[in-house]
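sry for the spam today, last one i promise. struct tokens for design, 276 residues
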């Protein structure tokens, strides 16, 4: 069975006026229009294609790369809104439809939104939803403390950055743990800092705890070399200054320079740190 919204490896069966017909081992066929066919090919070759519905609601294959695949979240641009709903640019010819009932708040043309691509069981159509919370759950966590995870930043608040963790869980990066410029739609590597009693996830962008000392030490060492061997920061420097200059918390910075000092790679002076 051809799965809408996913990439599939299909074999070239025959060439016709509309394009190439591709098929799988189960006997399903789909058209790849001529404009997407490879420059050279032979019958029997296999192609990796994305399958979705065209403007006439027929399955069609394409070699264009969508910005989001089935059961994934993407950060998409709203191109238009009509009386039925919103239409998102997701990298394909036919735009992705988000009905009003699937909009967390009314969408406006020109704005960007976090959208989940799912298959509507009633219509068998690929549909978008910005009601992301209904697709996420922290009831049965698949991550542990200190695990590296993939995150998608959904929105920023006074508390920090709300994120989707590994595409299935909700997490939060607290403001005091943000030491770089991050924005809605950013996809980043991050770490589980803490799992709270209610299964809420505290996320950080740097390796938490003792594991972060060595990477931060190497980072500070690189910054020292780039600065000519001296940086006017030390263990008594203002936290905001450290954050602005190096993107580290004061605690992380002190751990890093402590490690470098112990390894006799730097000296700590009254006005800063210096390479030995």
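last one done:
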């Amino acid at each position: 069975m051809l799965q809408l919204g996913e990439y599939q490896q299909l074999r070239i069966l025959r060439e016709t006026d509309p394009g190439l017909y591709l098929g799988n081992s189960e006997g399903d066929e789909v058209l790849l229009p001529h404009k997407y066919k490879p420059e050279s090919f032979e019958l029997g070759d296999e192609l990796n294609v994305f399958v979705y519905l065209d403007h006439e609601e027929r399955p069609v294959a394409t070699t264009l790369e969508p910005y989001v695949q089935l059961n994934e979240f993407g950060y998409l641009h709203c191109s238009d809104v009509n009386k039925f709903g919103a239409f998102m640019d997701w990298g394909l010819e036919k735009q992705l439809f988000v009905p009003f009932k699937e909009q967390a708040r009314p969408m406006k043309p020109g704005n960007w939104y976090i959208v989940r691509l799912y298959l509507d069981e009633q219509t068998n159509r690929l549909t978008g939803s910005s009601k992301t919370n209904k697709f996420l759950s922290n009831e049965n966590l698949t991550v542990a403390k200190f695990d590296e995870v993939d995150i998608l930043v959904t929105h920023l608040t006074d508390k920090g950055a709300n994120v989707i963790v590994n595409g299935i869980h909700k997490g939060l990066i607290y403001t005091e743990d943000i030491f770089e410029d991050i924005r809605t739609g950013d996809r980043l590597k991050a770490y589980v800092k803490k799992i709270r009693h209610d299964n809420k996830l505290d996320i950080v962008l740097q390796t938490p705890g003792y594991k972060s000392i060595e990477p931060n030490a190497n980072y500070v060492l690189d910054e020292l070399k780039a600065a000519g061997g001296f940086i006017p920061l030390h263990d008594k420097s203002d936290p905001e200054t450290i954050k602005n200059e190096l993107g580290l918390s004061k605690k992380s910075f002190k751990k890093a320079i402590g490690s470098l000092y112990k390894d006799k790679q730097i000296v700590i002076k009254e006005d800063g740190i210096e390479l030995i």
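The mean pLDDT is 92. ok im logging off now
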